[in-house]
TrEMBL record:
Organism of derivation: Corynebacterium genitalium ATCC 33030
Enzyme class per UniProt: transferase
UniProt keyword terms in alphabetical order: Purine biosynthesis, Transferase
This protein's encoding gene: purN
Protein name: Phosphoribosylglycinamide formyltransferase
Pfam family membership, one: Formyl_trans_N
């Protein structure tokens, strides 16, 4: 979140939403950006409706899921289809899911990286927008590798957002 806030220019952050109070909300508020909690309290379908209405209140061109770690419902996905993006700490389609770095190390890969992709109804199955690779160091721990990937992930999401162009169809395109 901080990298996204720090590198505004061609894009601007208007609103930050989370499901719990967290440092991302504190960072947004400190930067004078509207921030709100939409708590998961009860029915997930009802939460997805509240979340979609809250996010839609700013009429965003792009919705970035940065560390959100929640599966979004179909209603939310349909409402923001083509403008909803995510970062992932692996070179998709390899190693989807919440344990990508651990899974990549367990498999013994020599190269991994980060991906920015559109969010769809699958788990990390959306169309790939951008990727960056890095070599895995001999004996590197999951924590060490994940920290190096996070640095690349921050750079890649910022670069990707700087290349965003809304279209008349509602889908955001990202130039090369």
């Amino acid at each position: 979140m901080q990298a996204i806030l720090d590198h505004q220019g061609r894009y601007s952050v208007d609103f930050v939403v989370a499901d719990v109070e967290c440092p991302a909300l504190d960072r947004a508020r400190a930067a004078g950006i509207r921030a709100e909690v939409v708590a998961v309290d009860g029915d997930r379908d009802e939460w997805n409706v509240r979340l979609a209405e809250t996010v839609a209140s700013t009429d965003p061109d792009v919705v970035v899921s940065a560390g959100f770690m929640k599966i979004l419902g179909q209603g939310f996905l349909d409402r923001f289809e083509g403008s909803l993006i995510n970062t992932h700490p692996a070179l998709l389609p390899a190693f989807p899911g919440a344990h990508a770095v651990r899974d990549a190390l367990a498999y013994g890969v020599k190269v991994t990286g980060t991906t920015v992709h559109y969010i769809d109804s699958g788990v990390d199955t959306g169309e790939i927008i951008a990727q960056r690779a890095l070599n895995v160091r001999e004996g590197e721990t999951e924590e060490e590798l994940h920290e190096r990937i996070k640095v690349m992930e921050r750079e890649l999401i910022v670069d990707t957002l700087h290349r965003a162009t809304p279209t008349t169809t509602g889908k955001v395109e990202f130039s090369a």
